[in-house]
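Researcher: Hi, I'm a grad student and pretty new to this. My advisor asked me to get structures for two proteins we've been looking at. I'm not sure of the right format, so I'll just paste the first sequence and hope you can take it from there.
Model: That works fine. Here's the first sequence with its structure tokens right after it:
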Amino acid sequence: MRCKACEGSGMLMDDEQWHYTCSICNGDGFVSKFEEDEHTIVDTDFNHRIIE
């Protein structure tokens, strides 16, 4: 299955346009059904940064 976080590119970009490896798929662009189910939804701000 294509990674929903990076849309299959393997890279994420922050609000300052720095690119980094996707932490969900580890830069692969794809995740297995098992891997997709183990991640929990977290609160984020409008820039998709994690709120602690």
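Researcher: Oh nice, that was easy. Here's the second one.
Model: And its structure:
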Amino acid sequence: MSEFLSEIEACVPALRRYARALTRNADTADDLVQDCLERAIARRGLFRPQGPVRAWLFTILLNLYRNGLRAGRRRGQVVALDDVPSEPVTPAPQPGHMALAETARAIDALPLDQKEALLLIVLEGVSYAEAAGILGVPQGTLMSRLSRARAALRSAAGVPGEPYLRTVK
């Protein structure tokens, strides 16, 4: 039992990083991770040590995130009064900050399946096989989603993509 909890504890930083990248809100991400950990501990009897605890936890977190998105669409979005600016906001003049904000917006604009794949591979450094298992898709599907996500980000940044087929002269 304590080994199981130690493995879970070791995964918390990665779960928090992934949740923050998905939600783009620290409080929401922390709530998501807490819900994930509560569910994992409460249902530890369902874990079959056929694979790593990390993949199981990421799967739980991802399912909770998706469920929250579905519920949020039914409820609508709540905006706190403190979050509404009283005066017009001007973007920061720093180019690096602006580029980072543009990249974050481009990632947010990706379809959910591409965003999930991209963040698992790029942010968390999960292997293709493990990411495919977490997302519940074949590895080829994962690689396709990842390719489309990267192409969309290149396009959003105005960087020409590499052609898939090159003509040999």
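Researcher: Is there anything I should tell my advisor about the second?
Model: You could mention this: The two ends are 64 Å apart (CA to CA).
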